[in-house]
Design a protein that fits this description.
With 269 residues, this protein is an alpha/beta fold. It has two domains: 2-139, 3 Solenoid (UDP N-Acetylglucosamine Acyltransferase, domain 1), CATH 2.160.10.10; 198-268, Udp N-acetylglucosamine O-acyltransferase, C-terminal domain (Udp N-acetylglucosamine O-acyltransferase, Domain 2). Helix content is 16%, strand content 26%. The protein has four helices and 28 strands. It has an eleven-stranded mixed beta sheet. Strands 2-5-8-11-14-17-20-23-26 form a nine-stranded parallel beta sheet, with no helix packed on it. Helix 2 (205-219) packs antiparallel against helix 3 and helix 3 runs antiparallel to helix 4. The longest helix is centred in the C-terminal third of the chain and has 15 residues, at 205-219. It starts with a strand and ends in a 19-residue tail after the last helix. The model has no long low-confidence stretch (mean pLDDT 96).
């Protein structure tokens, strides 16, 4: 363990082996930090916060701070963070609320760039990239292997499905389904499949063709959504990818992003 003499670490904090804590860090009483995690100077971690192994936390990151919510009354809610995450400068992650699920949760192998914000009760999966100044409001859910561009704002309770991409400077007020790409200023729209990411993650041509056909049926043939879901289930029900997409659509509470009338070329992604 390497703790700089200017750091303030509460004696009851649970600090793992080979942890490095830089100058002027502040670590609270109820904090747990896993083995081999590195904290750069001026990091603040407070509240009931658990951080996993081998994370890299840059200067002026704040984790476990109170939620930005007027009803919060200092209840002992949590932040739970997994292993191998990178949080760059000025990232902020708020703890949960008792009227949410009580926990703000971040999985493994995520990369949050400078000035990103994860609000109370958010749930992030694994292998997510959030570019600079992307902001998640409370209760947002982000699936595995999602990319969120810079300066994106996500409304509370919105969900972003796995392998989706959200283009920079977009505003999300509705759910983004798995496997698609969305972009747009005031209200983002869907522009077809996130083909580059699907290829990079090893999706075969057959899987991608099936998803593309299902996307066209669901969003571009003029059917009402519930009717389109039934048609897609009958036509492509043997595809686990399509079933995952349909389950997401059936469980929406905020509605789904509108679809654009055109596809983006890969070089526009």
């Amino acid at each position: 363990m390497n703790i700089h003499p200017t750091a303030i670490v509460h004696p009851k904090a649970n600090i793992g082996e080979d942890v490095s804590i830089g100058p002027y860090c502040v670590i609270g009483e109820h904090v747990t930090i896993g083995d081999q995690t590195e904290l750069s100077p001026h990091v603040c971690i407070e509240g009931h916060t658990e951080i996993g192994r081998c994370c890299r936390i840059s200067p002026f990151v704040s984790i476990g701070t109170p939620p930005q919510h007027l009803q919060y009354k200092d209840e002992p809610t949590k932040v739970c963070i997994g292993d191998h995450n990178i949080f760059r400068e000025n990232v902020t992650i708020n703890r949960g609320t008792v009227f949410g699920n009580g926990i703000t949760r971040i999985g493994h192998h995520n990369f949050l760039m400078a000035y990103t914000h994860v609000a109370h009760d958010c749930e992030l999966g694994n292998h997510i990239v959030m570019a600079n100044a992307a902001n998640l409001a409370g209760h947002v859910s982000v699936g595995n292997s999602v990319v969120i561009g810079g300066l994106v704002g996500v409304h509370q309770y919105v969900r972003i499905g796995e392998y989706a991409m959200v283009g920079g400077c977009s505003a999300l007020g509705r759910d983004v389904p798995p496997f698609v790409r969305a972009a747009g200023g005031y209200r983002a729209q869907m522009f077809g499949l996130n083909t580059i990411a699907l290829r990079r993650h090893g999706f075969s041509a057959v899987r991608m063709a099936t998803l593309k056909a299902a996307f066209e049926l669901l969003f571009r043939q003029g059917h009402r959504l519930q009717e389109a879901i039934k048609l897609a289930r009958n036509e492509y029900g043997e595809s686990t990818d399509v079933l995952s997409l349909l389950t997401f659509l059936e469980s929406t509470s905020r509605g789904i992003c509108q679809v654009s009338s055109r596809e983006l070329d890969d070089d526009e992604e």
